[in-house]
Structure formats: structure tokens, C-alpha cells
Here is the input.
Amino acid sequence: MKSLFICFVLFSGIVSGQDFPTLFPVDPFDPYNDAARLFDAIDGWGTDEDKIISVLCYRTASQRDIITTTYNNQHGSLADDLKSDLTGTFKTLTVMLTHGMIKFLSLELHDTMARAGTDEKSLTEIIMSRSNQELSEIRTFFIDYYGHSLASEIEADTSGAYQTLLIQMAEGLRDESTFVNMTAVEKDVVDLYEGGPAIEGTNEDIYIDVFSLRNYVHVNEVAILFEETYGISLTTVVTTEFEGRDMGNALVSILQYSRDKARYFASRFHESIAGAGTADQDLMRLTISRCETDLGNIKIAYQNIYAASLSSDVSDDTSGSYRSALLALID
Ligand SMILES: *[C@@H]1O[C@H](CO)[C@@H](O)[C@H](O)[C@H]1NC(C)=O
Here is the structure.
């Protein structure tokens, strides 16, 4: 009876969109003690990597931000000390963990665009999954830190309808409610059809507006009603309307995210570890950016899709302190 009840709570929680993190704030929180432990781990001969993990991988981003400030005030720069003491992916991960969430996401966005050949999937992922408030803070961070706007970087690195879509999404004008107005859904379905399959060419503005301004529950309802009405999936439509282009991929990502956020991220995790080699930067970003939000849901989705546990797949693909640190965040 009791387990049935727990099952029901868990199930209805997922259905109603409740998020399950894997990383929680430590309480009581003592940033002075944490900064001292880090200094102790780094200072002198050799480095105590387990001790570094015991602090950085068990504190939330906002707590790590305070620890970093405390450390920097007392000892110089935590990021620089980690950089000079550590190597490889463990170094990269721990330096990432010294940043607060907004700075971390902004550096990731910048890096995604700075890399030779922009990584559009990651770019779409980061912008699509952030709240209007976070996007506003990211835009401010870009001006303060890089001296230019996020939009100007997007403009320099992307083109066409994809560029317009991203810039409009980055402005953070999306409806964030979960309210669905079926009359408005019906109107969007007809507009998308009339601006796509029904005509030669594509009315890109309609697609940009629906996918960047509507709330995600609404977008999902549009996808369902579109297929019911026209007998063709909206995923197929956007793929053919924007064939071979970043725009089509971005709209498919938005549809996946609207349908099931946890499944979307599970597939992103899988892409980062599947096949030969590991896309470490993606793996680190996905872990850090989701562990305080919905990594619990993502792990369940991953298990359902791939019949394997995310933790063991990550474990198989990594080693040493890097592996221990990732698993500390994931488990
Ligand atoms: C629902 O959408 C329709 C069409 O866009 C609009 O005219 C109507 O005012 C909306 N209703 C509500 C309650 O928002």
C-alpha cells in the first residue's frame, strides 16, 4: 500500500512536471570552512582531489559562488589555483564549478559560439532551457564581461531564420505560464499549415513566433493538434520546410523539449557519451546545469529509453577524479 502510494506520488509528480534534482544545498552552510578545506587541499605539495570533490561537488552553484568569493578574498584566485594544480578534464570541471550559474552558462554560450564551427545543438539547448529571468541576467553578464551583447555574438555566428529565432528566444519574451488557450492553439496550427505545407516556400516569421513566444505546453498542444488535423507530424514538417538547416534542427529540439524535457535531456546526455570518445564539455555542462533542477527525472527517462543507467554509462566513459566528480553530481 505504502509503495503504491509512493509510486503514485512519483508518477503524478512527473506528469504534473515536478522536477527532481540530484544536488541540494548543504545546510548548515559554512563558506569559510569550505574555502579553508579547498585551500588545504590545494596548498603545498600534491593535491587532495577527493577533498576538492567533497566541497565543490556537494554545494549548489550559488553556494559555490560564495565559497569562491570567500576563497578569492583570502587566497587570491580559486580558479587560478585549480588551473595550476590540476590537469585535464578534472581541471576543466572544477574550474567550471567555481562559477555561479549565470556566469557558467554565459561562458558556455560564448565558448559554444567561439569554437570553430558553432555548435548549434548546444547553443539551442542552453538558450531554450533558460527562464526569461536567467536570460536577462545572462544578457547583462555579456555586456559587463565581454563588452558586447549576447545578440551581437549570435548575429556574428549564425544566419537566416535560425539567427532570428535565437535572438528572439534570447530576448526572453516567451510566455512562461502553463495555460493553454485552445482557440489560440487552433489558430497557430492553421497559421503554421498555411505558412508552410500549403504554400510554395515558408512563412518563416510564423514559425519563429510560435516557437519562440508560446509557452511549452502550448507548443506541445500545437504539435498534437497539427498531426491530428493534417495527418503529418509537425516534426516532419519543420524538417522538410527547413531542410538541412540549423533552423529545422532547432525547431525539432524545441518540439522534443516541449513534449518531454527529461527525455530531451536524456538524449542530449546519450549523444555526449555514445559512440567512440566523449563530448566532455557537453557532458559537464549537462551535468552542472541540470543537477540542481531535473537530473533525477532525466535519469529515469534515460533508463526508460536506453535500458541502461546514466550513472553507469558515464562511469564507463570516464575515469579518475573526473569520473568521481561527475558521479557525485549525478547520483
Ligand atoms: C484565446 O485565444 C483567442 C485567439 O487568439 C483570443 O481571441 C482569446 O481572447 C483568448 N482567450 C483567453 C482567455 O486568453
